[in-house]
Design goal:
Distance between the termini of chain A: 56 Å
Pfam family, one (chain B): PPDK_N
Organism (chain B): Cryobacterium glucosi
Enzyme class (chain B): transferase
Largest sheet of chain B: 6 strands, antiparallel
Helix content of chain B: 25-40%
Strand content of chain B: 15-25%
Shape of chain A: globular
Mean pLDDT of chain A: 87
Order of helices and strands of chain B: HEHEHHHHEHEHHEEEHEEEEHHEEH
Strand content of chain A: 5-15%
CATH architecture of the largest domain in chain B: 2-Layer Sandwich
Number of strands of chain B: 13
Shape of chain B: globular
Pathway (chain B): Carbohydrate biosynthesis; gluconeogenesis
Number of domains of chain B: 2
Low-confidence stretches of chain A: 607-640
Largest interface: A-B, 71 and 62 residues
Oligomer: heterodimer
Structural class of chain A: alpha+beta
CATH superfamily of the largest domain in chain B: ATP-grasp fold, A domain
Radius of gyration of chain B: 23 Å
Cofactor (chain B): Mg(2+)
Largest sheet of chain A: 8 strands, mixed
Helix content of chain A: 40-55%
Strand order of the largest sheet of chain A: 5-12-11-7-8-9-10-6
Distance between the termini of chain B: 79 Å
Low-confidence stretches of chain B: 1-16, 143-149
């Protein structure tokens, strides 16, 4: 084995104009100078699956809450015997993670605790999950009730006469604290079931690997995966609306969806339009609480706030309905395929094994819907409300002169926002201007330069020396970071030039022109027949999955969003390639092999001219010259 | 001719007893066809892409021996033969084989054979080369599972060449090795017979074998295939290191592969109108000789054969250069896999029984290397 390592964060210089970047983040989030020895002893991998781009100071709330709550459930609620939480740091603007093991001596004592706690959840899964629904909806309702209005010149008279004794400043400060604490609460709920879902999946997965050595990961995923998920509802709603538009004959009014008001007005004025608008309104709550991003960025666009997005997707679907192309996910086929796969493996098992197989599969199938659906409730719905409220606050303070741009607040740490609110409230109270408007505009501008400079550079895939083998279950399951993957990142892969290797996440082979997308804002560039290449994808990119032919991502495992969605759409996916999105250029002709986990740049294809983009069959086993030679031999012999 | 029995007198109906076309719709009777031909008939009947051909049945061999009048000679010469006296065995073997290859074939049988050969050729626009292979009835020959390899004559052109090699196959019942094998295993010579397959030659670009299980561990969820350039004979006889590919049988996905050296290939030589073994250039050696699509097709056909015969199969296949993509995969043989056939379960025995929280805990510990 090579002694190869990734660079130490202490030896990496940031870009020149990013000097001082550490001050943008809280002290506990960065690698502190005097902790060099401690930090260098750990292996850190970059989580570009969830945080593919630089996080602005306010946006650290996403990974702080998410990863902290993940850890809380492993370490303190469930006492998962071999695994504590995951430490996180921010380095040059990107998020790095390091799993925390449990000391050898403490593992055994945690076993009975884990069995009692996790066992209770598995035995009472459906009832507890129903309670969960209530808790999360209640939290979202509370978040929705928050508002951040500019303070009035005077306290309303009725508040004075009623003897309320409090000004609107009190509620404003309180609302910010509630915004933060309710979101923290939602992230705890997020992990209440998720880790359990993964361990049940892992149990079935390990069993399959033991009885059928080398069974493809996606065989296991396909046996467990459901087809009727709430996570797919938003996209399904759009399809329903597209079909309804055609049915009602209002499909001619989707020409300019960039202007939602005009489009909706035109539809409303048409015959049958009222019925369509009613269905459209009905679908919005809650299904348009859906982001084109992943819920972790302030700039993520939610359908609810950008009606041009769902309208545009509906317009695309309408065209396909008009052309007689099926737009529905092949649900019946997916179910039939899942049953076939399950049955064929079952037939090979002894009676005792079959009992274990069915029991484990049954549990995995029971817990699996949560693994998918929580994403809608938290990342999409809760975070959609969170960011909407945060943007409202930022805009209000911007209008009060704290920063020139509506979204300037996201360059502040959340505790700085609290200070700033108090500054605003104090200025209002004392009747003298707040200090912020003289402080923040320049500081926000300075920070913006730093964030932009950090964004110019891609992160290292990992830091420091990797362990010989990766055994941490969550690292493997959620991030797909295997020992082979690390070898790949270190350039030890034996993949030839122009070939990328990753996880065979969804089966099939496809060819087409690459479309490299690094942010959800570029989604409109995706053309019919493209192969999507991205650092990471979000399931909310659903509507473009109907257009593309295959997906390639830099990071992500068998249960990553891209993998799940591609299996749902029955198209090939290779995930966790490490660097494909940085090295592949839009327009290059790609061959994606979802059976073997390889992506090949097909040279000399002249892909740039190939607009039609029809699938090309290449027989890679035989070079054209050799084939011609053999044909010649053959022609001769048949004359003989 | 005076020993001709009523059963083989020249009534047209009796010709069927000598010849059975693979696609003739008659049942695959092992005792008339031998293992190889019975399998080819069964595969053809199951709709598998088997190259066309016919069997010269055991009845034909029996008729030949009877009419040639050597039946008694054979028994006498083999009686009291000491299997350890190699010189004596060699002498007997040489004599018997000479008898078989030199005695005239009954006219009726000869005519029937020519008729069948021409009927086969009439299916093609121009004459095609054929392979002639022995098809033994199981225990008569050593290495029963490799019987097909012992006496295989490839790329034969013209009826004379074919009839000569049919006799060569018959004669192979009396190689020294075969005689010693039967003597040592006390297999009687009475009723000893052999069928012969005459089959259109494949023009193999790539060929190989596939087993519908992993022979290294008995895992029946896998198909393990070997593939090399040219005809499959070099793979089967172990003269080349083929590509080795393991496919998941349910998903038909490649699980692992290794690229073999494949230094030589057996291909037709137009000049000599025969097969030549030639060196494979480095660039073709260094990559898999079959594409993913072809791997999937081979795995699918192996799986089909297993399903049809209801037990693990060991198949031989070839990709024919003369046929278009999608129709070029041919099945040359399918026989039961014998090594693991006694294994009750198709999976690897496991420790991890049960399910629920106990097994979840165990899995977690195992995964983390703490179990």
């Amino acid at each position: 084995m090579t002694e190869k390592s990734f660079p130490s964060p202490y030896d990496q210089k940031p870009a020149a104009s990013a000097e001082g970047w550490k001050d943008l983040y809280a002290y506990n989030l960065v690698f502190q100078e005097n902790r060099r020895e401690v930090e260098e002893a750990k292996f850190w991998f970059c989580d570009s699956q969830h945080w593919p781009t630089v996080t602005k100071p306010f946006e650290t709330i996403g990974f702080e809450f998410a990863v902290s709550c993940l850890g809380q459930y492993n370490s303190r609620h469930l006492l998962i015997p071999p695994a504590n939480g995951i430490e996180f740091r921010i380095h040059n603007g990107y998020v790095f993670m390091s799993p925390v093991g449990v000391p050898e001596t403490e593992i055994a004592a945690r076993v009975p605790e884990f069995m009692a706690r996790a066992g209770h959840y598995f035995q009472n899964w459906d009832g507890l999950l129903e309670k969960w629904q209530g808790k999360i909806r209640g939290t979202i309702d509370e978040l929705n009730a928050l508002s951040f209005e500019a303070l009035p010149n005077a306290v309303p008279l009725e508040d004075v006469t009623s003897g309320k004794g409090l000004g609107p400043n009190d509620e404003l400060l309180g609302n910010f604290d509630k915004l933060v604490s309710l979101t923290y609460r939602a992230w705890q709920y997020h992990f209440e079931f998720l880790n359990l879902g993964y361990v049940a999946y892992l149990d079935f997965f390990s069993f399959c690997k033991e009885v059928f050595p080398g069974i493809p990961d996606q065989a296991v995923a396909k046996m467990v995966q459901g087809v009727d998920m709430e996570l797919f509802r938003p996209d399904d709603e759009l399809k329903k609306l597209a079909k309804l538009a055609v049915e009602l004959g209002v499909d001619g009014h989707f020409g300019n969806t960039e202007n939602p008001e005009e489009t909706l007005a035109a539809i409303g004025a048409a015959a049958g339009g009222a019925e369509w608008l009613a269905a459209w309104t009905e679908a919005q709550d809650p299904w348009f609480n859906f982001t084109v991003g992943n819920g972790f960025y302030a700039h993520d666009k939610y359908w609810m706030d950008h009606l041009e997005l769902p309208l545009g997707y509906i317009a695309d679907y309408i065209v396909r309905v008009q052309n007689g192309v099926g737009i529905d996910r092949p649900v019946a086929e997916l179910v039939a395929e899942r049953d076939r796969i399950t049955e064929e493996y079952s037939e090979l098992l002894s009676p005792e094994q079959l009992a274990a197989f069915q029991g484990k599969l049954g549990l995995a199938r029971q817990v699996y819907p949560y693994v998918e659906n929580h994403n809608f409730y938290i990342e999409h719905w809760t975070m959609g409300v969170f960011w909407r409220k945060a943007r409202q606050l930022s805009k209000m303070l911007s209008e009060a002169g704290f920063w020139p741009e509506a979204n300037g607040m996201f360059y502040l740490r959340r505790d700085e926002v609290r200070e700033t609110l108090f500054d605003y409230v104090t200025g209002w109270a004392v009747g003298a201007p707040a200090i912020g408007p003289d402080y923040w505009p320049a500081e926000v501008a300075r920070r913006k330069v730093i964030v932009d400079a950090l964004s110019e550079e891609r992160p290292q895939p990992a830091l420091n020396t990797p362990p010989v083998v990766i055994t941490e279950p969550f690292t493997l399951m959620l991030w797909g970071i295997t020992s082979d993957q690390i070898k790949n990142w270190l350039g030890d892969s034996d993949a030839p030039e122009g070939e990328f290797r990753g996880m065979a996440a969804s089966s099939g082979v496809a060819e087409g022109p690459a479309r490299v997308i690094s942010s959800s804002d570029q989604l409109s560039e995706v053309q019919e027949g493209d192969i999507l290449v991205a650092p990471v994808t979000a399931p909310s990119w659903g509507p473009i999955f109907g257009k593309i032919r295959a997906t390639v991502t830099d990071i992500g495992g068998m249960m990553s969003h891209a993998a799940i969605v591609c299996r749902e759409y029955g198209m090939p996916a290779v995930t966790g390639t490490g660097t494909a999105s940085a090295q592949i250029r839009t327009g290059q002709w790609l061959r994606v092999d979802g059976n073997n986990g390889t992506v090949t740049i097909v040279e000399d294809h002249g892909a740039e001219q190939d607009v039609a983009g029809l699938a090309h069959e290449h027989d890679l086993a035989l070079a054209p010259a050799a084939a011609a030679q053999l044909d010649a031999v053959l022609a001769e012999s048949s004359h003989a | 001719m005076e020993t001709a029995t009523p059963a083989v007198t020249a009534t047209p109906a009796s010709h069927a007893a000598y010849i059975q076309f693979f696609d003739g719709g008659l049942p695959p009777l092992h005792e008339q066809l031998g293992g190889k031909c019975a399998s080819l008939v069964a595969l053809t009947a199951a709709g598998m892409p088997v190259p066309p051909g016919f069997a010269i049945t055991t009845a034909a061999y029996d008729a030949f021996i009877r009419e040639a009048g050597i039946e008694k000679d054979i028994h006498e010469m083999l009686a009291n033969l000491d299997p350890d006296d190699v010189t004596a065995v060699d002498r007997v073997s040489a004599q018997l084989r000479l008898e078989i290859t030199s005695r005239p074939v009954p006219a009726e049988l000869h005519a029937t054979t020519i008729e069948a050969y021409e009927a086969l050729q009439s299916r093609f626009e121009s004459p095609v080369p054929v392979a002639v292979r022995s098809s033994a009835t199981a225990e008569d020959l050593p290495d029963a599972s490799f019987a097909g390899q012992q006496d295989t004559y490839l790329w034969l052109l013209g009826v004379k060449d074919v009839t000569e090699h049919i006799r060569a196959c018959w004669a192979s019942l009396y190689t020294s090795r075969a005689i010693i094998y039967r003597l040592k295993n006390k297999i009687p010579n009475e009723g000893l017979s052999m069928a012969v397959a005459v089959q259109k030659m494949v023009n193999a670009r790539v060929a190989g074998v596939a087993i519908t299980m992993d022979p290294t561990n008995g895992d029946r969820s896998k198909i393990v295939m070997e593939a090399s350039y040219g005809l499959g004979e070099l793979v089967v006889s172990g003269q080349v290191t083929p590509d080795n590919i393991t496919v998941d049988k349910v998903m038909l996905m490649v699980v692992k592969h290794s690229i073999g050296d494949k230094h030589a290939e057996l291909v037709p030589d137009p000049a000599s109108k025969s097969l030549v073994e030639r060196e494979v250039p480095a660039d073709r050696r260094g990559r898999l000789c079959i594409s993913d699509t072809e791997i999937t097709a081979i795995a699918a056909i192996a799986k089909r054969a297993e399903k049809h015969f209801k037990c693990p199969q060991d198949i031989e296949w070839a990709l024919d250069r003369d046929l278009p993509d999608g129709e070029n995969l041919l099945l040359l043989q399918s026989r039961p896999e014998t090594v693991f056939s006694s294994t009750a379960s198709g999976s690897i025995p496991t420790q991890s029984a049960g399910f629920g929280i106990e097994s979840i805990t165990r899995s977690l510990m195992t995964q983390a290397g703490k179990a």
